[in-house]
């Protein structure tokens, strides 16, 4: 048993954990480990948005142009593709890509093939929208959690190793306690999301993040599990999860949720796979914790799972959580509707020009 915070990231605590030092969790769990040479990791969400079956072919061609770019030098170490329909009825394809250091991502984003594609006039005249949301948290600003040690999804798939069993889990507050920065920093938010132009006018809009935006990817994988477990999950647990995800999508704004996408993995032909996850942006970790610990929509999921957990031992659940500083966030939306991603909650910024924001190198190394 060891701490979820790796030894090279530990420091004297000025903020206490939520449990006593002699706490021992009731079941085993693991986290991904990152090498001491890594200072930042990168999560990039590259999306294509369309409405109407007549635009489906163009949308998939656009997505394949994005994923073809992943094969270039300095491309991501791992990626997956998802589909969902948002609250406004738009089909959305998202390629989630991961790098184990920000410098590599910067070089890839700056490649002529990548930069020219995103800046091309065709992006503004296309019948589909595209967006990219790129976050680069420092290694002291994110945590992972897995009840398994093989085939780690998401950011875990590009990191270096897996821990031994860790202490900080199975209690409210454990998510925060696994983030190294929580030893000395409450990671409270400051500032607002700022858009470089009015999202209602469309076109190309860049959003500047504020300090300590929280991002969670929380996944469910029922591929290949026994039929009776799959049936129990899909009929008794997943419906409660979907209701919670729809609640956050539709009504989460008043709780501090900027955007919630409940997505299903697909292959590049569009065939659904037996895995889903939520991509959820929050104003702060504190607000995410408050929803998880006390809101009826999440407690319904918690009760549904806990009451049946021993009957679905093969189900693979996981999450990764980041709390990101303002300079390490980059959000760009082209031809997207004004409620896409972080556009909905961004205020128009007259103080920062669009050209100035777009000239920055996302994400910071």
| Share of β-strand residues | 25-35%
Looking at the structure, what is the overall shape? globular
**Contiguous runs where pLDDT drops below 50 for at least 5 residues:** 351-361
Nearest-integer average pLDDT: 94
Helix content: 10-25%
Cα separation of the termini: 33 Å
Order of helices and strands: EEHEEHHHEEEHEEEHEEHHEEEH
> How many E strands?
15
* Structural class by secondary-structure content: alpha+beta
Pfam families: Dehydratase_hem
Region (Disordered): 181-200
Cofactor: heme b
Family: Belongs to the heme-containing dehydratase family.
Summarize the structure.
Its cofactor is heme b. Keywords: Heme, Iron, Lyase, Metal-binding. This protein is α+β, with helices and mostly antiparallel strands.
Structure notes:
The chain starts with 31 loop residues before the first strand and ends in a 7-residue tail after the last helix. It is globular and about 60 Å long. 25% of the residues lie in helices and 26% in strands. The strands form two sheets. A 13-stranded mixed sheet has the order 6-13-10-12-11-3-4-2-5-14-9-8-15. It has a two-stranded antiparallel ribbon with strand order 1-7. Strand 8 (194-195) and strand 9 (204-208) form a beta hairpin. Helix 6 packs antiparallel against helix 8 (296-306). The longest helix is centred in the middle third of the chain and has 25 residues, at 227-251. The model is unreliable at 351-361 (pLDDT under 50). It contains nine helices and 15 strands. The protein has helices at residues 56-69, 102-110, 112-119, 121-125, 174-177, 227-251, 285-294, 296-306, 354-358; strands at 32-33, 42-50, 78-85, 91-99, 129-135, 142-145, 161-162, 194-195, 204-208, 213-221, 257-266, 272-282, 316-324, 329-334, 347-348. With 365 residues, it is an alpha+beta fold.
């Amino acid at each position: 048993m060891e701490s979820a915070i790796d030894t090279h990231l530990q420091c004297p605590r000025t903020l206490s954990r939520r449990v006593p030092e002699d706490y021992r969790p009731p079941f085993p769990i693991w986290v991904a480990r990152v090498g001491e040479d890594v200072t930042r990791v990168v999560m990039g969400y590259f999306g294509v948005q369309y409405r109407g079956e007549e635009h489906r072919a163009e949308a998939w061609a656009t997505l394949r142009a994005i994923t073809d770019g992943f094969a270039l030098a300095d491309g991501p170490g791992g990626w997956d593709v998802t589909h969902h329909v948002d609250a406004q009825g738009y089909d959305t394809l998202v390629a989630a890509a991961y790098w184990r250091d920000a410098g590599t991502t910067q070089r890839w984003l700056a490649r002529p093939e990548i930069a020219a594609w995103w800046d091309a006039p065709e992006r503004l005249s296309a019948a589909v929208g595209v967006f990219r949301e790129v976050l680069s948290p420092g290694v002291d600003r994110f945590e992972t959690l897995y009840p398994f040690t093989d085939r780690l999804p998401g950011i875990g798939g590009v990191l270096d190793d897996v821990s031994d069993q860790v202490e900080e889990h199975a209690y409210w507050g454990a998510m925060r306690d696994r983030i190294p920065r929580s030893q000395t920093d409450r990671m409270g938010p400051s500032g607002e999301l700022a858009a470089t132009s009015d999202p209602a006018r469309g076109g190309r809009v860049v959003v500047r993040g504020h300090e300590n935006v929280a991002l969670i990817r929380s996944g469910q994988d029922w591929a290949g599990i026994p039929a009776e477990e799959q049936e129990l999950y899909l009929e008794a647990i997943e419906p409660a999860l979907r209701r919670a995800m729809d609640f956050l999508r539709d009504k989460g704004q008043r709780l501090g949720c900027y955007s919630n996408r409940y997505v299903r993995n697909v292959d590049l032909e569009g065939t659904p796979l037996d895995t889903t996850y939520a991509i959820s942006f929050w104003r702060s970790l504190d607000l995410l914790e408050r929803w998880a610990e006390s809101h009826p929509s999440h407690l319904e999921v918690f009760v549904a799972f806990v009451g049946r957990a021993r009957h679905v031992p093969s189900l693979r659940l996981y999450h990764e959580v980041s709390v990101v500083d303002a300079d390490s966030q980059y959000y760009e939306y082209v031809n997207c509707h004004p409620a896409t991603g972080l556009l909905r909650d961004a205020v128009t910024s007259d103080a920062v020009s669009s050209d100035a924001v777009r000239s920055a190198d996302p994400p910071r190394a």
